[in-house]
Q: What sequence folds into this?
């Protein structure tokens, strides 16, 4: 049966929301790992029943959970994330150099070809890989050689929050790190280079065009066009047509170009989605109106999508990993809010309905398209 | 036989009741008790002590016999009542308000 599974990570557990391709009636399962923060839950594109969840807690640290039956049962796997070699230091708030120290896993990205291979983006920023289904983790330390001594945490922590695997080139990976920028490897993770040319951060950096230090909130890539990237930066929505070698701004007529997530339509690579937030000081929608903005032109021209979304007195946020897009014929778009709502659109964003309204604050949303 | 009382989330993670019983080989130090607990319940590795530094997680405390043992050195002997099983060794999560 065709359908979708929406995987939701929250401050107090994980939820799995399932529906058929109509996406009108939903089955809601959870909370899994009740009481724990689930920064991310994601599934293998090769084996949809294989899921991984990042489970953490201020009391008990980090765990990784794995399911082989689509989330019905889970087992803890490896949670030892050891930086390789000389740990080194990065900039700290006070200007001192601070040793890298593992805090939590922000994103889990299973391989596009092997269900036992999975990547983890962590705080303090680094990329780890497991080739045994999460039992053991090895760092790809070349990333921290890409001017890591100059990276410094933003208010949300120095986290590697986005991992994009190039479906046409298994040796190419893109990552994004809060308050450090975007980075790319073309040799399977051995060496990396910053890809931040064209980013301008006049409010955040003394050198507004610095090679590293930009607060990249999220990047997105369409699998059929992996050289085109879209970015939601702290301020500014950006586009690259050369795999990140250079970027140009496509914020256009957005009411605010501050925001966190960015997504791309499954069948239209130039249709992109953002959720504008008022400002870096006020993390809620402008004018109390929750609006997703869609561009059908690859940026610059944007339209507000409001049908079914609250258009008054709405002061939630939508976090960077909390927007996802399915690949059914009528493309579905999903996002979760810090108010605990998960909204779904089964018509590319034209109209929306809440799947659930009262979950804990939503940290992440992923969607599986089932055939 | 050592009696260890775990906080709620670690009971769920280890799939055990509130109190677990452990045989202890060798000296009854704080470290050896935690080592034995993690050997019997490997899913608890990293949840009580940091995997790398072996430092107690800051929001956990170790109580026994009306005393706070959290700051004791890892190689310090536990109270005789704990080693004899007449008193439990308690791993306690810090209170969280809100």
A:
């Amino acid at each position: 049966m065709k359908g979708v599974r929406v995987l939701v990570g929250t401050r107090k557990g994980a939820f799995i929301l399932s529906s058929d391709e109509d996406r009108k009636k939903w089955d809601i399962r959870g909370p899994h790992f009740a009481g724990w923060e689930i920064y991310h839950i994601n599934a293998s594109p090769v084996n949809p029943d294989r899921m991984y969840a990042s489970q953490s807690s201020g009391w008990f640290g980090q765990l990784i959970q794995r399911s082989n039956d689509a989330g019905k049962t889970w087992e803890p796997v490896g949670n030892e994330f050891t930086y390789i070699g000389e740990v080194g230091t990065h900039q700290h708030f006070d200007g001192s150099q601070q040793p890298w120290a593992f805090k939590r896993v922000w994103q889990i990205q299973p391989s596009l070809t092997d269900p036992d291979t999975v990547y983890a983006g962590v705080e303090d920023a680094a990329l780890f890989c497991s080739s045994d289904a999460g039992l053991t983790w090895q760092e790809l330390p070349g990333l921290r050689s890409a001017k890591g001594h100059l990276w410094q945490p933003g208010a949300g922590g120095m986290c590697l929050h986005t991992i994009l695997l190039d479906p046409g080139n298994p040796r190419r990976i893109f990552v994004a790190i809060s308050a450090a920028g975007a980075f790319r490897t073309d040799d399977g993770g051995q060496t990396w280079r910053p890809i931040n040319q064209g980013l301008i951060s006049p409010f955040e950096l003394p050198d507004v065009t610095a090679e590293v230090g930009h607060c990249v909130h999220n990047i997105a890539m369409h699998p059929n066009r992996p050289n085109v990237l879209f970015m939601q930066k702290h301020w500014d929505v950006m586009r690259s047509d050369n795999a990140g070698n250079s970027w140009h701004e496509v914020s256009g007529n957005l009411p605010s170009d501050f925001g966190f997530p960015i997504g791309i339509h499954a069948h239209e690579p130039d249709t992109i989605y953002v959720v504008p937030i008022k400002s870096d000081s006020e993390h809620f929608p402008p004018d109390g109106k929750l609006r997703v903005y869609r561009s059908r032109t690859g940026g610059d021209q944007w339209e507000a999508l409001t049908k079914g979304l609250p258009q008054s007195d709405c002061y939630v946020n939508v976090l960077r990993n909390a927007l996802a897009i399915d690949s059914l014929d009528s493309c579905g778009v999903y996002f979760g809010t810090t108010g605990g709502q998960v909204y779904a659109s089964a018509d590319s964003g034209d109209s929306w309905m809440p799947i659930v309204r009262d979950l804990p604050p939503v940290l992440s949303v992923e969607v599986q398209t089932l055939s | 036989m050592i009696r260890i009382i775990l906080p709620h989330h670690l009971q769920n993670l280890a799939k055990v009741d509130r109190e677990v019983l452990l045989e202890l080989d060798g000296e009854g130090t704080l470290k050896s008790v935690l080592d034995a607990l993690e050997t019997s319940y490997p899913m608890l590795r990293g949840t009580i002590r940091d995997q790398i530094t072996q430092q107690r997680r800051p929001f956990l405390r170790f109580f026994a016999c009306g005393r706070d043992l959290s700051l004791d050195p890892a190689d310090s002997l536990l109270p005789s009542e704990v080693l004899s099983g007449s008193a439990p060794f308690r791993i306690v999560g810090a209170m969280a308000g809100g």
